[in-house]
Amino acid sequence: MLVVDRHGGLVRVNQAARTLLPGAESGDRLRDTVPAWLHEAHRSISDGSRSTSAGPLSGRINDRLLEAHPTPSDDGDVVWWLLDETDRRLAETALTDARTRTEILSEVSSALLSTLNVPRCMEVAASMAAEHFAEAAVLVAPPHGKRYPLTYACHGGPVRQVTRKIEAAEVPGLTEALRGFPPVPARWINPDDIPGWLIPDGFTGPVGSVIVTPLPGHGVPAGALVLLRSSTEQAFTEGEEVFARLFAARAGAALSAARLYTEQATITGTLMRELLPPTLNRVHGVEYAGGYRAAKDHERIGGDFYDVHPGSDPTQESLVVLGDVAGKGLDAAVLTGKIRNTLHALLPLAEDHQRVLNLLNGALISSHSTRFATLVLASVRRRGGRVQVRLTSAGHLPPLIVRADGTVEEVATGGNLVGVLPAVTTNTVRTVLEPGETCLLYTDGITEARGGPLGDELFGEHRLRRALAECAGMPAEAVVERVQMLTAQWLGAGRHDDMALVAVSAPKTGLLTVVNGHASRQNGRRDM
Amino acid sequence: MTTLPPPEFTLDFVREPGTLTVRVRGDLDYDTSDDALDAVLEQLSAGRAPRDVRLDFGELTWIDSTGLSTLLMIHRRTSTLGATLHLDNRPAVLERMLLMTNVLDHLTAPAADERAGAELEEDGVSGAGAT
After folding, report:
1. Which of B40, B102, B105 is best to mutate for the A interface (most A CBs within 10 A)?
2. Is residue A109 part of a domain?
3. Which residues constitute the signal peptide according to the record (chain A) (predicted)?
4. Residue of A326, A368, A454 with shortest CB distance to B130
5. Core-most of A9, A79, A254, A512, by most CB within 10 Å?
6. From residue A499, how far is each of A128, A275, A299, A395, A397 by CA, in Å?
7. Do the chains contact at B69 and A421, CB–CB below 8 Å?
8. Phi, psi values for residue B84, rounded to 5°
9. Structural domain tally of chain A?
10. Average pLDDT over all residues of chain B
11. Is the four-CA dihedral B105, B106, B108, B111 of positive or negative sign?
């Protein structure tokens, strides 16, 4: 509290005011004692240009923030009540800062999590860091070999991404940050030690302050973030360092999510490319058509597969394989790959289906799993206008044959599934397809498609047979399309397993028939 | 038919001297097989090994290839324990699958047979405990 007379002379100074204004004594001139804002305010009240009821003024005295309330006394003196507002202001500022930071963090999170693309994620992280709390930000991602993907961002400037060979040890704290160790305090880093490659183009002036902080990922570090300020700006405070770490935690989480997703997508993509069934067409005068519809599950890789291995020349048999591995997902996919490769290697022995299946069975048996596969082998060769087929089922659905007159026959082949039993026994059935006749191999995804008017009924073998009866005389491709269309209609939007099918047809008017002049349709058909 | 919710998958175990009976209810498929296998193997390793293991499928509503794979694994374990597996009250869906894949004889072969044991050795079944 100060009492000041109308001429600006100090009348009284209490103890608190003396602490605030060391050396102030009664009789001193106000203008010599207090800052201008208070002395000006007193003068305007004394000359009547400001009313004392106009409310408090505020200003600084030394490092304190004060609110000054003037009260006039009867003798014309003014009593100045000075209230220290420093702490309240500090608290208010801290609150506003905290609010701003929370807003920034939530903005950062939503921006970062909206992308699962790793480079884009790094770009967003670097540019937001440069925008919100540094003049420049450099994101150093874990290296591919010795080359590090670097993302440079300058405040208000474009983001630049390069991959280059760097010496991480040149930057104080970077090696540690890349290994996920806690950050080195900014004040320990000498800005002069920052190598030129770390300073983005467009960064003005020498580096004044540096933060190097790890980007924590899921178990493994997702990289490190370097924040730079030029020497003309204020150095990073401790609070800013803490905030940078919070930011880095969010960026790291988003980046490692993106990285995991990308890795998984790459693995799935690679497997899918390897496992996708081939496109089929006409080989050695026989028509082949295949159809595959993967399960709609999130595990996109299923266990159905098919292949056609053409004979080395038209007199040799081609081998058709269609099968189904128990289960789904990666395990099933790996087993599918193994089966396809093994069968490919066993092609020279395809003369004897049972032998091939036993060799395959032996290759698949594993002590820790009873995962099995069921499959059908079909050896196909054209003779004149007719197609000779040898069919062997190893625990699989028996093939169906559509005769020219529309009858549908089930091929009476059967045998053990492969991959679990010590040995397998199968029986091979020989048959002949006349021109226009088709043999269909299919997996249980077709007959077990759930849907129909009630929504939960199996498509079933009888519907498949009825559908095939209408396919008499159709080329292989049309048979496959017809069955696929009917099952798709049956399913509607329902869930389904993998569905695979292969049709083998004797062409109605093949080139060979014309060349050889055989009237093949008059030939007997079932005996060879 | 669609209004009825499928029965929850459950296993009930009944222990009698020399015999373990497992009543299987609901769908034995990709979603339930892992748990089912764990539960059965746990029962098999608890207490004295039974001479007969009866799987009662009276209330089985569905089985898929993963379910069959589980039965094959249970059989491996009962064989190493010297127990015979029985598949009782088989519904059509199971019967059809066993017929098609031709494994019924394998699954229900009497375990005392010395020859079967020798075959299983070749089969690499010594490691069947690792599931």
Report:
1. B102
2. yes
3. none
4. A368
5. A254
6. 47, 14, 15, 17, 13
7. no
8. -95, 135
9. 3
10. 84
11. positive
Judge if A240 and A282 occupy the same domain.
no
Please tell me whether the interface predicted TM-score (ipTM) of this complex is above 0.85.
no
Strand bridging mode A78-84 / A136-140: unpaired
Q: What is the CATH number of the domain that holds A178?
A: 3.30.450.40
Question: Cβ B72–A416 below 8 Å, yes or no?
Answer: no
Q: Would you call B101 and A455 a contact, using CB atoms and an 8 Å cutoff? A: no
Q: Which residue has the tokens 């002049």?
A: A517
With an 8 Å Cβ cutoff, is A371 touching chain B?
Answer: yes
Please write the tens of the pLDDT for every residue from A140-188.
Answer: 998 888 889 999 998 888 888 999 888 888 888 888 888 878 777 777 7
CA dist A507 to A220, A289, A424, A525, B9, Å?
A: 59, 12, 34, 14, 49
In angstroms, what CA-CA distances link B23 with A119, B13, B110? 54, 6, 21
Q: Which of A269, A291, A320 is the last residue of a domain?
A: A269
Identify the helix (H) or strand (E) that includes residue A282: none
> Looking at the domain assignment, is residue A528 inside a domain?
no
Query: A74 lies in which domain range?
Result: 2-84
B114 touches chain A (CB under 8 A): no
The domain that contains A335 carries what CATH number? 3.60.40.10
Q: What is the pLDDT at residue A167?
A: 86
What does the pLDDT look like over B27-71, one tens digit per residue? Answer: 999 889 999 999 999 999 888 889 999 999 999 999 999 999 999
Give the domains, in start order, of chain B with CATH numbers.
10-123 (3.30.750.24)
**Does A397 contact chain B (CB < 8 Å)?**
yes
Please state, in angstroms and rounded to a whole number, the distance separating the CA atoms of residues A283 and A318.
Answer: 8
Q: Which residue of B has its CA nearest to A325?
A: B65
Region of residue A243 (left: phi > 0; alpha: psi -120 to 50; beta: else): alpha
Q: Are A424 and A415 in contact (CB under 8 A)?
A: yes
- Give the end of a domain, one of A54, A84, A114: A84
Nearest to B101 among A368, A374, A457 (CB): A374
Q: A328 and B70 in contact by Cβ < 8 A?
A: no
Task: Please report, for the domain that includes residue A13, its CATH number.
Answer: 3.30.450.20
Q: Which of B71, A350, A499, A342 is nearest to A334 (CA)?
A: A342
pTM, 2 dp: 0.64
Residue B124 pLDDT greater than 50, yes or no? no
Please check whether residues A428 and A472 belong to one and the same domain: yes
Q: Which of A12-16, A24-28, A199-203, A299-303 has the lowest mean pLDDT?
A: A299-303
- CA-based torsion, A321, A322, A326, A328: positive or negative: positive
Domain match, A258 and A119 both? yes
